[in-house]
Q: What sequence folds into this?
């Protein structure tokens, strides 16, 4: 009788433990976790920017790094971010002047800033009042090509370019998101040109930078100043950092 009662109690305890522990033993992996993302390649650092819908300008930025054991671990606490005033658009559909942030997966290899290099291994340019980022469709060979200054022979219009200094605190620190960038650059007569030009319909100058006074951006991603500085110090060119952006509902297909 005693043995039967003891066995019954043990069985009941086992059942209770199964009900209370097993379902919660391993939480479901969220869609923005690197193990769910498709286009990371050999990257060992990833920045993931998600939003609750295609149209909102509010987003969350998360950071992950792959350890020597092959597992992904979060680096920083999630950061509040802002994106384009008109939300996200798939990169292939995004148009110049749309106020949308391109959704997709992109490399991060370069950075620049009004302030001196904070200690990043990315290629860093400390700009001054002469630096520009043009995206003038009338000048396809300089479209989305950083220019250290504007020379007399320049074919791009200043009305179709960003004078980086004029953006004040937003560009204290910034990383270039490799969206619609041209290739095979060469230097001639005081300017940089592209042999393989960008698509002049899709826009350019898509950066990860410091929050601006407007909150929403024109298509970039922005975070707080201290967070942007920390991101630049963390991003390691040798680890092939990538950024994945899009609504949470489709992020795993980006």
A:
């Amino acid at each position: 009788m005693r043995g039967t009662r003891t066995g019954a109690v043990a069985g009941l305890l086992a059942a209770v433990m199964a009900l209370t522990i097993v379902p919660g033993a391993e939480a479901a992996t969220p869609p923005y976790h690197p193990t769910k993302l498709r286009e990371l390649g050999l990257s060992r650092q990833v920045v993931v920017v998600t939003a609750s819908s295609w149209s909102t300008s509010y987003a969350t930025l998360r950071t992950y790094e792959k350890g020597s054991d092959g597992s992904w671990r979060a680096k920083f606490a999630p950061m509040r971010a802002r994106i384009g005033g008109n939300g996200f658009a798939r990169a292939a559909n995004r148009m110049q002047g749309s106020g949308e942030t391109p959704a997709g997966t992109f490399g991060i290899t370069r950075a620049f800033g009004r302030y001196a290099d904070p200690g990043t291994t990315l290629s860093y340019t400390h700009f001054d009042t002469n630096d520009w980022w043009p995206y003038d469709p009338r000048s396809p060979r300089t479209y989305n090509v950083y220019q250290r200054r504007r020379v007399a022979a320049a074919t791009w219009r200043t009305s179709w370019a960003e004078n980086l200094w004029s953006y004040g605190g937003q560009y204290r620190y910034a990383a270039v998101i490799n969206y619609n960038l041209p290739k095979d650059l060469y230097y001639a007569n005081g300017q940089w040109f592209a042999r393989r030009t960008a698509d002049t319909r899709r826009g350019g100058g898509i950066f990860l930078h410091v929050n601006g006074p407007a909150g929403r951006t024109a298509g970039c991603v922005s975070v707080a100043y201290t967070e942007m500085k920390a991101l630049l110090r963390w991003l390691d060119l040798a680890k092939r950092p990538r950024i994945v952006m899009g609504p949470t509902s489709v992020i795993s297909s980006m």
